[in-house]
Amino acid sequence: MKTFPVNSGYKFLLSLIILNSHILGMNARLFCQTEKGHEFELKATFIHHFTRYIQWPHTEGLESFDIGILGQSEIVKHLEEIAKKKTVKNKKMAIKHLDQIEDIQDCEIVFVSASRGEDLDRILQNIGDKNILTISDTKGFAHRGIAINFIIEQGKMKFEINTRALERAGLVVSSQLKKLAILVDEEET
Predict the structure, then answer these.
(1) What share of the chain is helix, strand, coil (3-state, %, to 5)?
(2) Around 168, how many Cα atoms within 13 Å sit in the side-chain half-sphere?
(3) Rounded to two decimals, what is the model's pTM?
(4) Domains (ranges, CATH) in the chain?
């Protein structure tokens, strides 16, 4: 049997499609009730994979690639497990538990949990146009200015991308990742 070389971008895309199709077949109610830990493990894996398809303008000088978690979320332990084994842009991953909005300044990614929803406008204002990728898993957050937001739609886990938020942060996302996402517009305020 003849084999063909496959580049790493194609491998990721294929693995993301396989992962997504595995999730897509699950009933959302069952998924959310009985496999909650798996849901956050998968989200953490996606976050790590997103870093391969997003370009930050300043990663060369970093000692570590910092991911901040603002609020309470089960995703923390799964990101910490990934950080023990993986790197991002050839940098060690550091997972930071953030208490104050001002603490996000030194992060490359900030995950905003639903528990901090009432602070979202202040969080985004504090980030401004800094090179920080914002991620959440709360309905409506992408429309309010979060760059990537996990959702359950029609019983399937998906993710939204707010391209305007990525542009404001000075981050470049690959077309491969955009093809897998639901592109959303930001609400005018």
Answers:
(1) 50, 25, 30
(2) 17
(3) 0.81
(4) 8-183 (3.40.50.2300)
